[in-house]
Amino acid sequence: MLSYQHMYHAGNLADVHKHGLLSWILAYLTAKDKPLCYIETHAGRGLYDLDDHAALKTGEAAQGIDRVANFFPPAHPYSLVLRAQRDISGPRAYPGSPLIATQLLRPGDTLHLAELHPGEFAALEYATSATKARCYHRDGFELAHSLVPPTPRRGMIMIDPSYEQKSDYAEIPGHISRITRAWNVGLVVLWYPVLTSGAQAGMVRTLKNNRPEAFCHEVSFPPARPGHGMVGSGLFVINPPWGLADEAARLSACFAKLQNPREKD
C-alpha cells in the first residue's frame, strides 16, 4: 500500500509544471508583509539526487528539468530555488515542494508537512532538519482536517498524492470541500496526472462543478517512455492569486514546444 517513492520520477515534466507554478505562488504570497501558513499533505522526502540509480533508471529527469530548465528565466523563483539548493546540496540536487517552501517562506511563516511512507518520512525529517518545518508521520488528509483553519489563517495547502490508491480520485473532491468549508480563505492547490486512461477525468469534472470559479491548468507532454500512461500534468487552484493565469499561460506556451519540437523560440 505504501510502495510509491518519488525518487524514480523526481524532476520530470510534471514536477517542472507543478514546482514552477508553486514557486511562483509562494513568491507572490511572500511579497506581502503578513505571515502565512503552508500545509502539505503528501510531502515525499523533500530532496532528491538526480544521479541516484532510481532517477537514472527511468530517465524522467533527463527529459524533464535537465531538458527544460530554460523555461524559467534566471530571476524566476523556481530558478532561484534550484540554484540555492544546488549550492547547498550539490549540482544534481533537486528540491521537492517541501524544500521549495522552506527556501521561499520567511522566518515568521509556518510549515506543516505530512508523509506516511516511513522511509520517505525519515528522509523528509533529515532534509528539513535545519528549518522550522514541522513534519508529521501521518495521513496527509487527516493532518489537513486537524489543522484547518490554521494559525495564521492566511496561507495555502498543497495536495499532491501519488494516486497509488485509485480511491483518491473519488475521495479528493470530498476532502477539498471539507477543507474549504473550514478554511474559506485558504489557497488550495491540487496536483493530478493527466493519463491516457482518463482516470482523472471524473475527479476533475466534479471539482469544476463544485468550484466553477477555481483555476484549472493542464499541460501536455510526450510520454516518458513507450506505453507510459502519463501524458500531462494538471493543477486545480482554489482562491488563485492575481497573475497566476498569466504565468500559467506562459508555461503552456513553453510546454507546447515539446509537442512541436520544430517550433523555435
Descriptive overview:
- The chain has 265 residues and is α/β, with parallel strands linked by helices.
- The chain has eleven helices and nine strands.
- The protein has helices at residues 13-30, 53-58, 60-63, 65-68, 77-89, 97-104, 118-127, 140-147, 167-182, 201-210, 244-259; strands spanning 37-40, 47-49, 93-95, 110-114, 134-136, 155-159, 187-195, 215-220, 230-238.
- The strands form two sheets. The chain has a seven-stranded mixed sheet, sandwiched between helices. Strands 2-3 form a two-stranded antiparallel sheet.
- Helix 1 (13-30) packs antiparallel against helix 11, helix 5 (77-89) packs across helix 6 (97-104) and helix 9 packs parallel to helix 10.
- The longest helix has 18 residues, at 13-30.
- The radius of gyration is 17 Å and the shape is globular.
- The termini are far apart.
- The mean pLDDT is 94.
Topology order in helix (H) and strand (E) letters: HEEHHHHEHEHEHEHEHEEH
Kindly report how far apart the N and C termini lie. 44 Å
What is the overall silhouette? globular
Task: Please work out how many helical segments DSSP would assign.
Answer: 11
Number of beta strands: 9
| Amount of beta strand | 15-25%
